[in-house]
Amino acid sequence: MQYRIIQPPFTLKFREMSRAELRDYRQWFMDVMPERIAELTAAIQRTPAFTAWQPTQSPASLDSLGEWLAGQVAMRPRTGEELREIESQLRFPIDIPAQELTNRTFSLAIDTGMYLSQVFLHNHPMLRWDQPFGSKRFVDYGQPVLVEFRSAPLNPTRMMVTYAYGLADSTWTGRRLREIYDIWVALIRPTA
User: Which domain holds residue 85?
Assistant: First the structure.
């Protein structure tokens, strides 16, 4: 059995989606989460050194998950069309990387973000899901985020896509996943 890449039935251009579409996206995201975590678990367990990994929702489970993900990240060349589209959206000229994460890597990052959210919620029940609809300029506009942190909401899927980029360029190692968790735990608002 091969890993099935996630297929959201939405454009994922959150700023262009209506509020009704964004609410439907959140519902889809919540509904598909158990299936995607099961898909991630199966992919991990098919890897010889990780056959015993279980989604225990413990912080310790993130150690092996990070190491596994580090070995899965892959890049592909960006197409000319992709480069032109990115350039057309820039206000100021910047260098655009010629490489992009593969669809499989994006999917694994999203699945890992879903699992990470469950580790947070299981171990810190004061956290909860929210969906910010304030300014469309907000980076996580309309997306499911975890709240009750002192600094800002946590978008676990965006955080894991960022983590995948760091793994791809060797900025981070597999250990960084647990460090990300620990950093955000320290930012949880104390309960009254």
Answer: 40-185
